[in-house]
Specification:
Elements lengths: L1 E3 L8 E4 L2 E11 L7 E8 L5 E7 L3 E4 L3 E11 L2 E6 L5 E5 H4 L13 E5 L2 E6 L3 E9 L12 E6 L4 E5 L7 E5 L5 E5 L2
Antiparallel strand pairs: 1-6, 2-3, 2-6, 3-4, 4-5, 7-8, 7-10, 8-9, 10-11, 12-13, 12-15, 13-14, 15-16
């Protein structure tokens, strides 16, 4: 299956010579002389490397058929993460390396979207934020109320984030999965 470079969209997955690339950015450019081109920023799906590539306008490129399905995260087993398809109940063992940084935000029972191409897992797509419990945090120092002061807190997945001084062990925090930053403390 091929697509014209004029029809590229952010998030599309291209198959360029057997290597899969995800479109991060694209821009149509018409210089004063010469033909129009499409400048792209592509991320190698396997290695994560980002490269800039320029295509001629209306050039045909291969498009990879990527299937996305919501799957429930069950548990970690050795170096793998085990997901279950909610409709077929089939279990899928995914190497932690294929999940990347998403492993820092996965808790049992969560249902992220798993992207696959020809049976190979490309990655796990998380919501913009997740709620995680604080498992370890030093108490805030009484009287230290300086604006914007933070301290480290370890969350239930093992990731450490900087949080405001009022956060305590046992609190539930909303964390931005794109930046890894604390957003807010959740009630309950």
């Amino acid at each position: 299956m091929s697509v014209s470079t004029n029809d590229l969209k952010r998030g599309m997955t291209l198959d360029l010579g057997g290597t899969l690339f995800q479109v991060l950015e694209f821009q149509h450019h018409k210089p004063g002389k010469g033909n129009a081109v499409v400048r792209t920023k592509l991320r190698n799906v396997k290695t994560g490397a980002v490269l800039d590539k320029t295509f001629n306008s209306d050039e045909k490129v291969g498009m990879a058929r990527v299937e996305r399905s919501e799957m429930q995260f069950l548990y970690k087993e050795g170096g793998d993460l085990v997901f279950m398809d909610s409709t077929t109940y089939e279990q899928l063992h995914v190497p932690a390396a294929a999940v990347g940084d998403a492993v820092n935000y996965l808790v049992e029972g969560m249902s992220p979207v798993v992207a696959t191409h020809e049976g190979q897992v490309l990655g796990v797509e998380l919501p913009a934020s997740v709620v995680l419990k604080v498992t370890k945090s030093d108490p805030g120092v009484k009287g230290n109320t300086s604006s914007g002061a933070t301290k480290p807190a370890t969350l239930e997945t093992g990731i450490t984030v900087q949080v405001p001084l009022f956060v305590e062990q046992g609190d539930s925090l909303k964390i931005d999965t794109r930046t890894g930053e604390y957003l807010t403390r959740e009630k309950g």
